[in-house]
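Form P-L/3: holo structure prediction, ligand alpha-L-arabinofuranose.
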Amino acid sequence: MPTKPTRAPKAKPTSAGSSTASGADAELIILTRKTLGEVKGRIWGQFIELGGRCINGGIFDPGSPLADEHGVRRDVFDALRELQPTHVRYPGGCGVAYFDWQELVGPVEERPRAKLFRMTRVPQSTAFGIPEAYDYCKRLGAELYLTVNAHTQTPQDAGYLVEYLNGTTPTKWADLRRKHGREEPYNVKLFGLGNEIYGTWQPGYKTPEEYVAWCKEAIQEMKAVDPTIEIVVCGCGRYNPEWDRKVLKGLIDRVDMISVHNYFGRPVFKDNMAAYRVCEEMLNWLNVSVDEAMDSLLTRKIRPGLAFDEWNVWYRTTHDPLADVEEIFNKGDALTIATLFHVMLRHTKSITLSNISEAVNMVGGIFTDRERSVRQTIFYPQKLFRAKHSGRVVETVVDAPVFAAKHERFFCGIVDVKKAQDPTVPTLLHFNDVPALDALATVDEARGRLSLSVVQKLEDRPLRTKLSFRGLQPKGAKVKVHRLTGASLEVMNTLDSPHNVGLETSVQDVGEVFEFPPASLTLLEFEL
Ligand code: AHR
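OUTPUT (holo model):
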């Protein structure tokens, strides 16, 4: 979708030599020899859910004039393809607990026509089932990441699911797939066991002991059919480290990843700019739990990864039958997303899977009605980062002014606006030293490219920043400057006004000092 140039201030790089470090407000030192991790694997994931209007009414909408002959929305598919997802998580989320997998396969007319999503008491059609999700992923060039109903189904059902999908034997469940018209196995390799199963908001929620017992049996059943599958189990993160310790200790010899979810953001921009701290803290805690479990089993050679399989900004809406968590994001939220992507990229050594949550309508980067769709503000950092960050993540040292901000620790999302202004809320974490710049650099030797994305967090002034490169040096006199557009932090992309925020690119002279506009996202693309 073309984006319109806006009134956002242009960066003014000073040519080399005309400014000194002492003339700058801040400095970024890019240590190109210090590798933090690699941009690889399942880290650009999307999440589609049989909940709200994500799949039904978003991805799949047979009544829409924009749907193809299978009921799939063409416009939504095209937008998702622009993001080049590595994988797609399906069918939940909370949604996974309301479906038996057997109800999501076979001829549509033989499936129950809908199941009740009891959280909002809204029926969810079963017509976009597992084969439909599989085909959708194939067309997107993405891997299907299937969540398993560990809530109300049995470990044996999980084994039968793998036999249905991947089985090659002449046996009941593989034969059912054949009867459904598919001879060759699907070969789905990635399975998540349940969703937030520690939470009382989920049917079939479990204690850690119950969950470990369920998983042990399920993993045995599933891997007996196909030993090459990978398993993700539910973790919790900072909010309940005890859960993680018990789950990891119980399953350390048989899991590939442990998941963690969190939603960030407050209706105060400068507080949003501290969300990344909460996120880093949560990941660090989970890594400690993984290490502790590894220490308890010295024979395991490969450390389980973290599956950060639901995260986003979410602070305005709640589970509502008519508009289930249909967050309309502003430009400020897109900057928060960029800082969270920075965290994810800084942690690629331990994060082996990441999903922004969700793809459409439900806290979605894409928003629809029957006849239209719009790329929300948070769509654009996803698109930019996916296109421009590749290769090695290298360390960037930030020396910048600092400010104070506060943030909830967990699922802050559902805070009301009044509460959000109250600095005494005990669940708030207070940070006195949030740097005004948040930067992430990647070096892609094969492409001859160094990409530096920078969120400038101060609303009231630009920051003249000295850029210092250690090790590799950019060459050439020009830099490509990609910028998130938008006239103010509050501006949104809506169905009626879809182009307020987008991306623009210019080519500028390389200078020693670069001026980052107030409250902005800039990605500088240097030639190496
Ligand atoms: O993304 C909305 C919901 O938030 C998901 O279904 C659930 O997993 C999380 O609590």
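COMMENT: The first strand starts at residue 26 and ends at 39.
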